[in-house]
Amino acid sequence: MDSSLEFSGSLGSVSSLLTRCRTFKVLVIGDSGVGKTCLTHRLCAGEFPCRSEATIGVDFRERVLEIDGEKIKLQLWDTAGQERFRKSMVQHYYRNVHAVLFIYDVTCPASFSGLTSWVEECRQHSLGQDIPRFLVGNKSDLRDPKKTDSQVSQERAVSFSKAHGMIFFETSAKDPPKKGTSGHTYAHQLPQLLSPSCALHSWISPRSKGDLGAIGSDCWRTSHDASLLHFY
Ligand SMILES: Nc1nc2c(ncn2[C@@H]2O[C@H](COP(=O)(O)OP(=O)(O)OP(=O)(O)O)[C@@H](O)[C@H]2O)c(=O)[nH]1
Question: What ipTM, to 2 d.p.?
Fold first, then answer.
């Protein structure tokens, strides 16, 4: 082989090694129909899908973010909410997870009550307390300030998130909220919520490898850009 070709070939593989980005696995769980597929689609494709069917097993969506000059790949695992579509795959979901999003539908109190079984599933799969957890109330575009009884109040969600060491926010995969509602954060801001500049940074940074114990939700809260988290 021509030696110059050989040389440029090896340079190519070195550069592909250098540009390979670190990948972070984010597990998305919650009852069926709360909008996990739509949210992950919004985050990765930037739009609300015109059609969405029940997820069978798991779907993967990826988004590359540049954080502190480094390219980071978020790999979102959109898991099935229906028990019959999860079956024996569940243990694979929990392997090497970097963060978990617990999703509920703000207009469906049953999906909020269902969160306890998702927390329990995490416990059964020995998810460490150092793994960042987010509580996400989806479909805030459907929130009606006049129908408070049939919706999940933000106070209730804040209290749940505190009890379980989660960061809470409401969002909509679809539309902005109606006038008169508050506390909304757009879905496309979620990558920032997961960004190393708030918490993943200290977590993934090689120099803080020995410091995992210090990375709890309080640390996330205080280091966050407060404008993204309307409740804290
Ligand atoms: N208005 C509104 N509808 C939404 C929103 N997100 C999802 N939906 C609708 O809710 C329904 C269920 O959405 P999916 O994303 O398929 O729900 P899922 O949680 O992935 O459901 P499974 O795959 O069964 O676990 C669909 O009809 C969506 O169009 C939202 O933010 N606002």
Answer: 0.99
